[in-house]
Write a structure and sequence with these properties.
Elements (H helix, E strand, L loop, with lengths): L5 E3 L2 E2 L2 E2 L4 E4 L4 E3 L2 E4 L5 E4 L2 E2 L3 E2 L5 E7 L2 E6 H9 L8 E4 L12 E4 L1 H10 L17 H9 L6 H8 L3 H9 L9
Helix pairs in contact: 4-5
Length: about 180
């Protein structure tokens, strides 16, 4: 069985959390025992504990770290990767290898470039190009064929008014960004 290794969270966004928080190879975050001052002048010992994680609106796990009375939310996969994984090529993104955004263990994370992250998402089915009816167009395919036939004859604005869609939809159809499979 794999051993869980803990390391201090050091400088994140120019704030040093060393001695306050640690992250683990399993993707967990804990606050270390420490003494803090009250606003009324007293002191309190905060015991060591695993921090509660939150799920952001886009499905990533985040946690709030506090120092000097100020709390900042951080994405857990970033904390883990920056602490445990070397990044000699200075790649800006962190990829979840399995595609599971809540698995922040070291073995599931890797630094990558934006294009590598996007390609991985397409290969694993996390992202897919949608076109035609799958893309939730209001137009049936026979109308798309008409739009393609009228390219250069009627303006995009005229076609948009007639088909009751925005002119960007008309442009995407005519340039092949959507409805690529619909032939004239």
């Amino acid at each position: 069985m794999e051993e869980e290794i803990w390391k201090d969270v050091e400088n994140i966004k120019d704030i040093n959390y060393e001695g306050l928080y640690q992250v683990s190879t399993f993707g967990r975050v804990k606050g270390l025992e420490r003494v803090v001052k009250h606003s009324r002048g007293g002191v309190q010992t905060i015991p060591e504990r695993i921090l509660a994680l939150q799920i952001s609106k886009n499905g990533y796990v985040r946690v709030e770290l506090n120092k000097d009375g100020k709390g900042i939310k951080y994405l857990v996969h970033r904390l883990i990767a920056q602490t445990f994984i070397s990044n000699p090529d200075n790649k800006p993104c962190i990829n979840h290898i399995s595609g599971v955004k809540t698995d922040n263990s070291v073995r599931n994370l890797e630094f990558c470039f934006h294009i590598e992250n996007t390609n991985h998402a397409f290969k694993t089915g996390l992202m897919y190009g949608r076109k035609g009816v799958e893309h939730d167009h209001k137009l049936p395919e026979y109308r798309v064929r008409i739009i393609k036939k009228l390219k250069g004859i009627k303006s995009n604005s005229e076609l948009a008014l007639y088909f009751k869609v925005c002119h960007q939809n008309i442009s995407c159809i005519q340039t092949g960004k959507s409805w690529q499979h619909a032939t004239i």
